[in-house]
Design goal:
Blueprint: E1 2-6, H1 10-21, E2 25-29, H2 40-45, E3 52-55, H3 61-71, E4 79-82, H4 88-99, E5 104-111, H5 116-119, E6 122-127, H6 129-142, E7 148-152, H7 156-184, H8 191-198, H9 207-219, H10 235-245, H11 251-263, H12 269-282
Helix pairs in contact: 7-10, 7-11, 8-9
């Protein structure tokens, strides 16, 4: 089928290539000018009805701007898909705004990273079932076998992806802490070797562990060339917010999020306060800068 993709970054570019390999005709627009269209208006003109336009751009203002523009360009029956990491409440709002004009909107959580071109993308899709049916050939081409699902109404796709990423935070932090304990041992352990054997038969084996092994092989077991500064893209925060709203205890995901915050501090003021207090009440020695 023919569709338009907006955004040709690490995800959008590879998704476009995978679709083309699967026999789909993909028209593209990107602000860099590297697409088949120089504007959203031109992109829409390159598509057949019912038009399908898939957004693969950063959440927030870029997605809001593109969505608002597209609402004035597409026609009733057309489908807009947001494949970025938008907040699910924004997706619910956009679906309602689109429905007022007879336009269909889907929110698609996409997981697979830079490996998706070859391995396929896990797709979690929210929205109207009829709209999902329109884009199903695209979903099947992007996903590996059994790798996509229509998970619920508007917002459900991005909600599921949000929790998926919250779980990812916890898994990554668990590996990080475990390997720091291994590294701190006096036993002279080979972290690359350990990560390697854990890939086979171990109950903690996973794709993340395979990626860690690759990183250790490439960067060295001490990861000396990497600064321990860890960003977050929002989904972990939103997962914690929803856990609080639902009265669901989520200590692992919350701690993993806070660990990312701590990684960005050159010097923790909170730690200075604790050291000062220990000195004041117990006379414990201070380490001066």
């Amino acid at each position: 089928m023919k569709l338009g993709i907006v955004g040709l970054g690490r995800m959008g570019g590879n998704m476009t290539e995978r679709l083309r390999r699967g026999g789909h005709e993909v028209q593209t627009y990107t602000r860099s000018g590297a697409g088949t269209a120089a504007s959203l208006e031109e992109l829409v003109s390159q598509l057949d009805e019912p038009r399908v336009v898939w957004l693969m751009i950063p959440a927030g203002a870029p997605t809001e701007e593109a969505f608002s523009t597209l609402l004035g360009l597409v026609a009733p029956g057309d489908v807009i898909v947001d494949g970025g990491n938008s907040n699910f409440r924004d997706s619910q709002r956009r679906a309602a705004a689109a429905a007022e004009r007879g336009i269909r909107f889907l929110d698609a959580g996409v997981s697979g990273g830079v490996w998706g071109l070859e391995n396929g993308y896990c797709l979690m899709v929210g929205g109207d079932g009829e709209a999902v049916a329109v884009v199903e050939p695209v979903l099947r081409a992007l996903a590996p076998e059994d790798g996509y699902a229509h998970v619920g109404p508007a917002g459900a796709g991005h909600f599921v992806k949000m929790v998926h990423n919250g779980i990812e935070y916890g898994l990554m932090q668990s590996y990080a802490e475990g390997f720091e304990i291994l590294k701190g041992s006096e036993l002279g352990l080979d972290l690359t070797e350990i990560a390697g054997i854990w890939r086979y038969g171990s109950v903690v084996r996973s794709w993340l562990l395979e990626l860690l092994h690759d990183a250790l092989e490439r960067e060295g077991s001490d990861l000396a060339g990497i600064k321990g500064y860890v960003e977050d893209s929002g989904e972990g925060r939103w997962t914690v917010h929803e856990a609080i709203a639902e009265d669901v205890p989520a200590p692992v995901i919350t701690a993993a999020l806070f660990a990312r915050f701590a990684s960005r501090q050159d010097e923790s003021f909170a730690a200075k306060v604790s050291a000062a207090l220990r000195n004041e009440f117990g006379g414990h020695a201070l380490k001066r800068e």
